[in-house]
Amino acid sequence: MTREVFISYSQPDRDCAFELVAQLEGQGIPCWIAPRDIAPSADWAEAIMDAISAARTMILVFSNSSNLSPQVRREVERAVHKQLSILPFRIEDVLPSKSLEFFLSAQHWMDAFPPPRAPHYARLCGYLKALSGVPTGAPCAASPAVAVAPAVAVAPAPAAPLPAGGALVDAADLQHIERQLAGYIGPLAKHLVKSAASRAAGVGDLIDRLATELESDSERREFIQRCRAPRARL
After folding, report:
1. Which CATH number among 3.10.20.740, 3.40.640.10, 3.40.190.10, 3.40.50.10140 corresponds to the domain 5-132?
2. For residues 150 and 63, what is the distance between their CA atoms, to the nearest angstrom?
3. Which residues of 78-113 are buried (b: 16+ CB within 10 A; e: fewer)?
């Protein structure tokens, strides 16, 4: 089902995310949020990717927790790939980590602190109504025009050749690593490998960086072994 807004959040911010959904849907703006909108029999990752593809806007509930979340990072990367409008709804005074700054450096931010959050929800509601053309009807709580913070001035690091024992990392190595990573996270592997490759010091370093994208220690160990096993020269 197509929803206007995809809500991206990390688990510690669940209460805030669901409060936000209640406010938006109460004003006629349909939202998609996990796990509410994932069918019991559905594949979790596939459902999230499909929902992002169907949405027009992503609201990122941005905090220190989401800043460090590999799952949030993958959702943001997917949204960028699908050319969604992304609005970080910043509930804590933190800046994006290096793994997110590449994707969020050109975005506008809406600060949602200090508490209470009700006025901030109202501002966001008004902004999304104007963006999507939803009839105003019963307006959100009285609020001034949206005060969107300027974009965080963070420029992505330029891509650079990858020295690996004095030689460049060749296309075969990159394709092999991408295939292994895709077995865990699907098509987002391509974008993660490209991003990490621009900063890695070599093939081994690239593998180690990408391993951090996986959720469990067992998956990380298995991924590293699979990448290194057929490449004795790493």
Report:
1. 3.40.50.10140
2. 17
3. bbbeeebbbbbbbbeeeebeebbebbbeebbbbbbe
How do strand 163-164 and strand 167-168 relate by DSSP bridges? antiparallel
**Amino acid at site 110:** M
| Of 3, 87, 4, 71, nearest in space to 37 by CA | 3
- pLDDT digit string (tens) for 93-120? 998 888 788 788 666 789 998 889 999 9
Which residue in this structure is represented by tokens 């998956």?
219
Tokens (6 digits) for 80: 């960028």
Closest CA to 215 of 12, 98, 68: 68
Domain boundaries, the chain: 5-132, 163-228
Looking at the chain, the number of H-run helices and the number of E-run strands are 10, 7
- Distance from C-alpha of 192 to C-alpha of 102, rounded to nearest angstrom: 11
Compute the half-sphere exposure of residue 33: CA atoms within 13 Å on the CB side of its CA.
Answer: 24
Residue type, 191: H
pLDDT of residue 19: 95
